[in-house]
Fold:
Amino acid sequence: MQVDILAPVGSYESLTAAIKAGCDSVYFGIEQLNMRARSSVNFTLEDLREISRICKDNNINSYLTLNTILYSHDVRLMKSIVEQAKANNITAVIASDHAVMSYCKSINMPLHISTQANVTNVETVEFYSAYADVMVLSRELSLRQVSEIAKEIKRRQIKGPSDKLVRLEIFAHGALCMAVSGKCYLSLHSNNASANRGACIQNCRKKYIVTSKEDGEELEIDNEYIMSAKDLCTIGFLDKILESGVGILKIEGRGRSADYVDTVVSCYKEAVLAIQEGNYSMSSVEHWTKKLATVYNRGFWDGYYLGRKIGEWNDSYGSKATEKKLFLGKGLKYYGKMKVGEFKIESHSLKIGDQILITGPNIGAHKTTIKEMRVDNVSVTNVVKGDSFTIQLDEIIKPSTKLYKIIQ
Structure:
């Protein structure tokens, strides 16, 4: 069975990183009406043509998220976005609101059902099959429940608008919300910023003190951030996921950096290929897990797939990545004949032997180790703030290119 890796894209850097890492498809939001409207740097309507071109040139699918709840005043904008998606040959729209489903159907725009629709049984799959070829299942299902739904789709021959069997998609890696499939009202209650409108301020990720109403006694919740779940990581039982009948593995993280996208996509792509080729092993899982831990994460757990009833919570705030990025500077120029890139150090310093990360719209995320540097064509062992220097590099450097030092 074909298994697709679906990568999150919040910038052209991430789009390039996802493609280079081997994704089969990408999903992204534009402007409003998507669940990362606040936390991610979103594309605009004007970007649709270029995104579509890049995806088509690289033979991958493009999915546009329109997965917030909609109010009446949003309908005109929604229709405009769907029309532009169709006009620019975007592969499909991801949505949970029935207004989007209905309009996509009316103009023959392919649709995927978002996890916010909470698809948890085969009857719901059959209902939505009138609108969509792909269902993103609820995040709270166990693998046993996923497998039962997959088997029933085959048994009942449930087909979508394309007259093909409905495909199932699940979240495989990334942030999990304390709420049922992301439907949370905490941010709305505290700050009038609705998570269901893409404006979540993530106040669930903070630490809290409980105060007694009777005597005012305060109790600090010890050790755990009780509303902040660890990140989902399924690479250790990915073989069981594929056995369940899932066809699309979704990686969460449209607000994450290009190096996050590069690392996570490449690990899961390698794991899928290893399973298909019979080379999947625990030693490989350990390697991938260690690599996944180098980029942004809140610690890992298995989610609900293996039958857990409650979440695993964080014991600290922010990322637990084993590698940190230190911004150094930006690109200046690329000398194509010599394959040399020139950078300017804007902060901190760099020396021979340091590991660096280079990101850019045309590069994605590229890591390498400094072996030689030159200032005014003279070999040097280190550079500091204010220095312009060159290194041997196959990647084309532009003014939009950013340079980081990796700290372990």
Remarks:
- The mean pLDDT is 88.
- The chain has two domains: 4-177+229-314, 324-407.
- The chain has ten helices and 24 strands.
